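stage 2 :: seqdesign
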């Protein structure tokens, strides 16, 4: 069967948001004007085609008078689509879900960077007034993500959209896929960790601290900091590429937080962005917020000659 989309006719991807399922108004009321996490998709040939650097539009469905249906953002795909478990920051999106069943049904998603057009959306009414009424999202309102617009359709849209936003960075260098362990893949994790460490060192040095990187010594913290007056701080640095400070904390770090009175957890959100934000959490806050995520199971004592392993 001939597929509708190919490299020659693809102008941009389009992802839809149903405000009755995902709380767009709450997201905006919380001060957000950028979708820079992951967005849910159906896994199919379309999602497999999505590549870092592809243009993408954000479409709001529904009939809300405050937020009429139409195009509310334009930006870029920033990584390959993959299983939800392979991404660090999908909890950001989960925090605004209104439909729990829909949230739990999400299995596949893609990282995106989409500045929102809160002051100048291109509503469906404006599109139709301009003679644009053949977009797939207009013809098939119940279609799944991702939808798309053709090269010819995008050329017409650009007169209404205006200049496309600047890309957030070099897409080819940072790719999020479902192949890594834990949160994100190794390349993404390394880039985020390095950016977070750089931000932490700069911040403490600017405040007059002497900063020593001890991250390779497995102490339970990354930076040993001292002030001329004798004050000390043992800083564990965590970085995330999104806005939600959800991080993995090891047993060794919890041990240090419990035993070291000057231990501090420093979380750098939007670590790969020029607008990165740094928040300090006390050791008490870190320990109280930590919940088991992975359990170590030593099963060696259960092995016996009577129960051989499966070959």
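stage 2 :: out
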């Amino acid at each position: 069967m001939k597929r509708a989309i190919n490299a020659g006719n693809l102008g941009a991807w389009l992802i839809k948001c149903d405000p009755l399922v995902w709380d767009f108004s709450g997201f905006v009321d919380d001060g957000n004007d950028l979708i820079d996490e992951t967005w849910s998709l159906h896994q199919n040939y379309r999602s497999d085609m999505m590549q870092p650097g592809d243009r993408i539009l954000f479409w709001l469905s529904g009939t809300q008078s405050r937020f009429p249906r139409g195009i509310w953002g334009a930006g870029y795909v920033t990584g390959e689509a993959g299983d939800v478990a392979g991404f660090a920051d999908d909890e950001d999106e989960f925090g605004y879900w209104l439909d729990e069943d829909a949230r739990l049904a999400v299995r596949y998603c893609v990282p995106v960077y989409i500045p929102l057009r809160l002051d100048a959306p291109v509503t469906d009414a404006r599109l139709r007034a301009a003679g644009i009424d053949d977009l797939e999202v207009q013809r098939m309102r119940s279609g799944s993500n991702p939808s798309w617009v053709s090269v010819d359709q995008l050329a017409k849209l650009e007169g209404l959209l205006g200049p496309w936003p600047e890309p957030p960075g070099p897409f080819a260098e940072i790719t999020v896929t479902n192949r890594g362990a834990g949160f994100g893949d190794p390349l993404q994790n390394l880039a985020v960790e390095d950016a977070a460490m750089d931000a932490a060192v700069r911040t403490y040095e600017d405040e007059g601290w002497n900063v020593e990187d001890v991250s390779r010594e497995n102490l339970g913290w990354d930076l040993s900091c001292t002030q001329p007056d004798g004050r000390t701080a043992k800083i564990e640095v965590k970085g995330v590429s999104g806005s939600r400070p959800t991080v993995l904390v090891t047993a060794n770090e919890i041990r240090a937080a419990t035993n070291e009175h000057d231990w501090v957890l420093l979380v750098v959100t939007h670590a790969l962005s020029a607008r990165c934000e740094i928040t300090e959490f006390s050791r008490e806050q870190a320990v109280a917020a930590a919940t088991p995520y992975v359990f170590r199971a030593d099963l060696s004592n259960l092995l016996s000659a009577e129960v051989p392993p499966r070959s």
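stage 3 :: structure notes
- Confidence is low (pLDDT under 50) at residues 88-93, 172-185.
- The chain has two domains: 10-173, 186-289.
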